[in-house]
Description:
It is built from twelve helices and eleven strands. The chain is α/β, with parallel strands linked by helices. Helix 4 crosses helix 5 (102-115), helix 5 packs across helix 7 (134-146) and helix 7 (134-146) packs parallel to helix 8. The site of adenosine-5'-triphosphate has 14 residues, from helix 1.
Amino acid sequence: MSFDGVDVVRGLSFDVRPGEVLGIVGESGAGKSLTARALLGMVPRGAATSGTVLLRGSADLAAERGRRISLVPQDALSALSPVHPVGDQLAAAVRSVRRVSRREAAARAVAALDRVGIPDAARRARAYPHEYSGGMRQRAVIAMATVNEPDVVVADEPTTALDEERREQVLRVLAEQREAVGAALVLVTHDLDVVRRHADRVLVMYAGRAAELGPAGQVLARPRAPYTAGLLASLPRPDGPPRRRLPALPGSPPAPGALGAGCAFAPRCPLAADPCRTREPEPQPLDGRLVACHRAADVPDPIREFL
Length: 307
Ligand SMILES: Nc1ncnc2c1ncn2[C@@H]1O[C@H](COP(=O)(O)OP(=O)(O)OP(=O)(O)O)[C@@H](O)[C@H]1O
């Protein structure tokens, strides 16, 4: 995907398997949201794209949206209409894919709200989004995204707008609903702990590309891309003070358009050597995953040595 000739997501290729949870992680600006939206065929105005997204072999994503693939966005208000009761919106979503009576659709809407833990769902179904709390709204959006039992749910930082306690609740509800309908989940987050707890596989993105892609447990236990190792080494320790920056990774990601010929991470990478500055590494299989790094074999274990 590019804007005015500047690539913001590049050379990315991955699959999402039935029923799995794929975490997409990386710093702000890595291209996570654009990738998530591309999966749904939702391309921002002004973006030029190349490449293909296939959903069980079909490239007609617009036709599948809301039916076999759905979105839980960062901001629930953007997903809900302010002028219709929440239950009516869910019922309309049901009727957009199933030929059921209004009454049946309304009953399904209430059941869906009940499943995501909205108290007194029959009454709440008649309320408007602004009458819901932030956590309730996000749960209603999860109900909306799962009510038609899609194959894939894409959640783009679904808990950003919430406080710590609500975040946990909403992630739990999302995991439960995903499991109940048997959907795969693509979970965009900048939080490696969320990946650790929820994802089967993880795609680590840096500067619009894949740095590392593989089983979440293995990647987090023994990262092979220096960028993943640096992200992990930067995680706040439970007993330490909160951190705003990534102490193990000085500097910040390059601006799109400011990329040189070499690896985009080389200027921040303690392992960078000659080829890293001249040639961008392609993802290669290593240790049960794909890693885009010339020095992948030299990433120390344990990662503490990386600090
Ligand atoms: N509509 C747009 N026009 C131009 N550039 C854009 C547009 N949307 C995103 N970008 C740029 O594309 C890059 C990737 O954006 P994206 O939102 O996918 O990042 P992200 O990894 O999701 O970050 P965040 O965690 O901050 O949401 C960023 O550098 C961003 O500035």
